[in-house]
Amino acid sequence: MTASPGNCYICGATLGKVALKNHILKEHNDPTGEQACRLLKIEGAYDKNFWLLIDVPGDSALASVDIFLRKIWLECCGHLSAFRGSRDDVDKNRKWGMLPVGAQLVHVYDFGTTTECLITIVSETRRKKQQEPVRLLARNVPSNDVCAVCGNDASVICCECMWDEGNPCYCDVCAEGHEHDITLPLTNSPRCGECGYDGEQDVYTFDPAKVAATVPAPSKKSKPAPPANQPKQKQEKVVVTDELALAEEIKAHLPLYAYPTKQLVQELKSKGFKESRPLGIESVSDFGEEGGLMCHIRHGEEVLIVSATNLRFADDTQICRDINDYIDTRVEWLKQQHLMETVRNAMITLGTQDSGTKCGRNEPCPCGSGKKFKHCCGSLL
């Protein structure tokens, strides 16, 4: 069976295994979600062409994934199963949140004709609360197996030929004349062809129509009109000087949440904060006497003011190491916005924009640098 990419069960994207993992962490991780989860990668221990990406709440037991794997990949005759760590078996009642990121377990199903699955805890994620503990995020695309005799699409696998070299797959017509009469349906599972597995309980086949129905359409909401008798506020141009001058800009572009350090977690618990990560930032005060930003975190009627040095800021694209890293990120973003605005103004002034005339790629850049447009401001636009 040949290697295959996978489908995202949330938006329908088709990508490779690693690309889909990064896609899910970037596009489908909800930092404001109620459930703290573990992102799991599950592969066939001896055939990694079969793989799944799922998330499961940290307070769910290992048994929840055992039930899910039986449905999607394994169940045939009600065999026993177990989770094994690097040394001993792991109790199925143990919570996923007790295992660290990077830990690996082996799920063993059937101690006779055994099927083993390798489970890797990839990352910590969050999602909106849902009823089912396990959510399927991505799955490998089924392989396009062909009949060893006629070359048409195969439908069954010979349970004896599969242990020999060569193609063990056949179509229904050629299977009738095959020398072995023990065949099983082809399934998208590492247990394909073993024991009596026929994939009857696998109801997780990828359906683009169902995914399209669950993806919300882009909203076309218009901007609300300003109240009557209220003058319009002009948007001031961004002028980047130094990091201290960015305090107001950082306030204006403040991320919605931040992660506390271990020291701050203890302080929050002592003040009655039950949810300590992520923290919603209400506002930021100016640089204080110690030279750092002070963040205001609301909890009911109380507002706790903490130093930004005890927080790891996060925006829509990344989590910054500390406040300095976040400032550096904002500096580069603001510089780029300022340069692009400068270029647009220069092009309008010179009549190269809004006048139907375009600045050629090899012409001198309108900003006056003396470089070609494609090597200067054209690269920003």
Helix and strand topology:
Blueprint: E1 6-8, E2 14-15, H1 17-27, E3 35-44, E4 51-57, H2 62-74, E5 81-84, E6 89-90, E7 104-109, E8 115-127, E9 135-140, E10 156-158, E11 169-170, H3 172-176, E12 183-185, H4 208-214, H5 247-252, E13 257-260, H6 262-270, E14 279-280, E15 283-285, E16 294-299, E17 302-307, E18 311-314, H7 323-349
Antiparallel strand pairs: 1-2, 1-9, 3-4, 3-8, 4-9, 5-6, 5-7, 7-8, 10-11, 10-12, 13-14, 13-18, 15-16, 16-17
Description:
The protein is of the alpha+beta class and 381 residues long. The protein is 20% helix and 23% strand. It contains seven helices and 18 strands. The protein has helices spanning 17-27, 62-74, 172-176, 208-214, 247-252, 262-270, 323-349, and strands spanning 6-8, 14-15, 35-44, 51-57, 81-84, 89-90, 104-109, 115-127, 135-140, 156-158, 169-170, 183-185, 257-260, 279-280, 283-285, 294-299, 302-307, 311-314. The protein has a nine-stranded antiparallel β-sheet. The chain has a three-stranded antiparallel β-sheet with strand order 11-10-12. β3 (35-44) and β4 (51-57) form a beta hairpin. The longest helix has 27 residues, at 323-349. The radius of gyration is 28 Å and the shape is flat. Mean pLDDT is 77; it is low at 232-247, 287-291 and 350-357.
